[in-house]
Amino acid sequence: MTLAERVRLGILDASQALRLLAGGHRRHARNYMIAAPALRRGWTGSTFSVLPLSTGLPRCIEVEPTTSCTLKCLKCEHTHWHVPQRNMTHEEFLHIARQFPRLCGVSFAGSGNSLEQPEFIQMLEYCHERDLYTQFRAPLLFLTRKRAERIVQVGVDRIVMTIDAATRATYDALQPGSEFKRVIANASYLVECRCKAGAPVPELTFVFTVMGQNLGEMPQFLELVNDITIADTRSVRRVAFIPLLAFEQTQELAVTVPKSLIRETREKARRLGRFAVTFGGLGGRHRAASCRFWAVPFITVEGNYYPCRMMCGRNRRRQADKHVFGNLFQDDFREIWNSKEAAAFRFGLRRATPPELCRVVQCPRCAAAGDRAGDP
Ligand code: SF4
Ligand code: SF4
What we know:
Blueprint lengths: L2 H20 L3 H16 L5 H4 L9 E4 L26 H8 L7 E4 L11 H10 L3 E5 L7 H9 L4 E5 L5 H7 L5 H18 L5 E8 L7 H11 L8 E7 L15 H14 L2 E4 L19 E2 L5 E2 L10 H5 L11 H5 L2 H9 L7 H5 L16
Parallel strand pairs: 1-2, 1-8, 2-3, 3-4, 4-5, 5-6, 6-7
Antiparallel strand pairs: 8-9
The protein binds iron/sulfur cluster (2 copies).
């Protein structure tokens, strides 16, 4: 992501927080300002992130509520798993969240479909009670009207929708098991609900993972987003084009994006207006030494503590699990965080060679991994 894109997104975040403040949601607005930059761009903006030996606990976490998913997206590690799927219970989630007294934001992420998790709405309600910034990822296939209305009511801040195509044919080929028309209708209904309620959130961020099959549809995708959000005449539409996190089984889907196509897509966004489009990772690298992502722990559906979300996605969990520092269902997070191993890991990120854990998961942010990826 370029500096200009980062600044623009920072301004958008600030204006969103101001809208919450104007609506009387003071604590939520404060949490938004702290958590949105950290969860969206890995920017924690405090001494906490530059002092790896800090004993203060993180303010934001990422939690995997489920590994259940009935879809078979070609790009996804989940499609290649042969292990039983699992749901985190609401009680387990509470047990995790209560270990973070300074918590400001929660992102529900990982490999699974949150909307297939039967207790997911309860988890969102808990976050609402604590005025936390909340975001989740889901393809919205299973979003019922009742759920859409509840999601608006509980003030979820951001929903990340991955639609990797602008046409039904490409969508069906890349995301088998899903239904293009239904996903678009559900997303449009969510936008409509929010507009009717006059609520500033949830904001939809549209993610398009660029692969060989959908490369040519990048500019056209903006028209699709325009149609989905037609009811919303005020907000800026956020779209992120990101590279594929390729692994052994998905290597042939990866592609290099020509600069001319990026220019054409930017131009299209400018012509349509009210678009904030990013191309994170389609042209840059991130050095582990400047990594801040460790400041947002990722808790897997089994309770394992991963230092960051980049440990997922490349189908390397078996390898990562051999190196984890603890499990939040069994151990106290404060003790794990302050353990010698975890502190040494954080300190190791400042060295030229990334820690072993970052290397075994082939983190795309490590210069050593020799790869490219970016911010959603
Ligand atoms: S990308 Fe998401 S929706 Fe698709 S298979 Fe993976 S977990 Fe399921
Ligand atoms: S895997 Fe390591 S280098 Fe990569 S983002 Fe996570 S903590 Fe940073």
